[in-house]
Specification:
239 residues, Rossmann fold, 6 helices
Length: 239
């Protein structure tokens, strides 16, 4: 049982950020990565964060996902404030409720595609056979059903990206956070993956945050938040 404070936020709000700040370095080398971010992400929506490199997008999703501590302000994710959790509580919550798609994939090189995808379930205590059955099923859904036994170095960059996406989705997390999920994919594959992700998020108690420069996938967003110099400059509704 998590000991973190449970916030009485609107049940339709998955992520609530208010006055969020983050700096790196000190003195003359200090960089203000986030300068008072205000943002809400609703359940059942796909929010995209766009903006130039260095605008704070990756820092923001790292704080929201609980892998980086903020300096100031508020950040509540499905009623939980990571700053009020102990380290093991953060790890447990992320393992059960948050899915990550990293820009560099972060696949384990000695594990097959199916083994890489099954890792979150195995960590959460799911029996090995069930974990691998589900891993093979979702790999099939992202077009890799015939490559489940392949090692990462036997896969193209696009195929590795799809393995990473399958791994993030497998344990049905409440929040999925992606850093450039289609950067290594061709147009057709990127659209198929985004269609699958939208199918997972829309109409359920789940939220999806995507950092992207890929204008080809903007059509899949419910809202797009534009960032620049550590600020949210605008939020545009797409639907």
């Amino acid at each position: 049982m998590l000991k973190s404070t449970i916030m009485n936020e609107n049940r339709n709000i998955a992520v609530h950020c208010k006055g969020l700040t983050k700096t790196y370095g000190t003195g003359s080398t200090m960089v203000h990565a986030l300068n008072g971010i205000n943002l809400e992400v609703r359940t059942g929506e796909m929010m995209m964060l766009v903006g130039p490199s260095g605008s704070g997008k990756t820092t923001l999703i790292s704080i929201i996902a609980g892998v980086l501590d903020r300096d100031g302000g508020e950040c509540v994710v499905f009623g939980h404030d990571f700053m009020q959790m102990k380290s093991y509580e953060k790890t447990r919550y992320r393992g059960k409720h948050i899915g990550f798609v990293f820009q560099m994939f972060n696949l384990l090189p000695t594990l097959t595609a199916a083994e890489n995808v099954a890792v979150p379930l195995l960590i959460n205590g799911v029996k090995r056979k069930e974990a691998f059955d589900r891993a093979r099923e979702i790999l099939g859904r992202v077009g890799l059903g015939d490559l489940t036994c392949s090692l990462p170095d036997q896969l193209s960059g696009g195929q590795q990206q799809r393995v990473a996406i399958a791994r993030a989705m497998l344990h049905n997390p409440k929040l999925i956070v992606c850093d450039e999920p289609t950067s290594a994919l061709d147009h057709e594959t990127g659209h198929k993956v985004m269609e699958l992700l939208r199918e997972m998020v829309v109409g359920v108690d789940r939220a999806f945050i995507v950092v992207t420069h890929d204008e080809r996938i903007f059509e899949f967003a419910d809202r797009i938040a534009k960032m620049d110099d550590g600020h949210i400059t605008s939020v545009e509704s797409m639907r």
